[in-house]
């Protein structure tokens, strides 16, 4: 439509007051719905659909069954802090940046191994926190997700999900970290991440040569979290939280009040990782409303959801407390603590810690 045609169209509407009034009412209604219930509005601005092939959570029924089977063997871990966590603002990425001056690289999944990617993120941020805050003389070496994927599916899950199908549940990964440990992505002989490696290890389990290396680095304790308050308590004390649910979001977040917000929409059978808490945040209505938010780190690459204006890690978004309750209420989300990490070889942590 050229400018002259547009002007003629506007003039025609003005000549019909009733039509103009009806159109203005319709526009006001659409604007209100777009702000308060954005999931009802088609996402014309973003034609990129969520990558369904990267969603590998087996669902709430499988997760609850797995948790019931494993419950007698799970560690007893109470999330307790020295102070009330209400009003907490904690960014676990700050610990990583104190170590190397930059964010931990955002993972880019290639298959439906999201459960292992979320668990690997939890291990990485837990390790950074323990090195900086607790002064542990360890080295930040990134976890190799296919090792977690294979341990979770083949060993803990017992091959319940066939080799021609991607996926796992969160509790399998949590138990795998405790029982089979963490393999560093830079370990000698460790292959680069690929779809082929993820699926091969997810089918048969990790090669024997890596198990001895990995078992020296275990996550001793983890606890299921089912409410926003429990997530807040965990994050306020430095414990990252994996979150597996079928709650979906628009691919591109929306910036408001200095944060990139995830907009709930549709369903994602997917695991991610919570790595930040701002219990003081006012959540926009389009993001669920209410008070309090967590930062959710995804594994679909650094550019998946838009740029975070507040310095949060790329590839994630903030989620309001009301939406967090929906996600963790599905029963397959876990807070992690006490990582027996990689012993430091080269870094002088005495110097590093004294500079905080």
UniProtKB/TrEMBL annotation:
Keywords: Signal. It comes from the Bacteria. InterPro entries: Papain-like_cys_pep_sf (IPR038765). Residues 1-34 form the signal peptide. Gene3D superfamilies: Cysteine proteinases. This is Peptidase C1A papain C-terminal domain-containing protein. It comes from Kolteria novifilia. The lineage of its organism: Bacteria, Pseudomonadati, Planctomycetota, Planctomycetia, Kolteriales.
